[in-house]
Amino acid sequence: MTPEQRRQNVRLGLILASVALAFALGFVAKLWLLGG
């Protein structure tokens, strides 16, 4: 695996992690605001 491929994989992982985090925060916020 070249350094370029590794850099792209890291970038993809960060994007996926941020999307998952956004979904989790939205879910928690919805439960909190609506009182479950």
Could you walk me through the main structural features you see in this protein, from its secondary elements to its overall organization?
The chain crosses the membrane at residues 12-33. Keywords: Membrane, Transmembrane, Transmembrane helix. Helices cover 89% and strands 0% of the residues. It is mainly α and 36 residues long. The protein has one domain.
Count the beta strands: 0
Biggest sheet, in brief? none
Secondary-structure element series: H
Query: Please, how many domains?
Result: 1
Helix content percent band: over 70%
Q: Structural class, from secondary structure content?
A: mainly alpha
User: Poorly predicted ranges (pLDDT <50, ≥5 residues)?
Assistant: none
Task: Specify Rg, calculated over alpha carbons.
Answer: 15 Å
Mean pLDDT over the residues: 95
Q: What is the distance, rounded to the nearest whole angstrom, between the alpha carbons of the first and last residues?
A: 46 Å
Strand content range: under 5%
What does the overall shape look like? rod-shaped
How many helix segments?
1
Oligomer: single chain
Keywords: Membrane, Transmembrane, Transmembrane helix
Transmembrane segments: 12-33
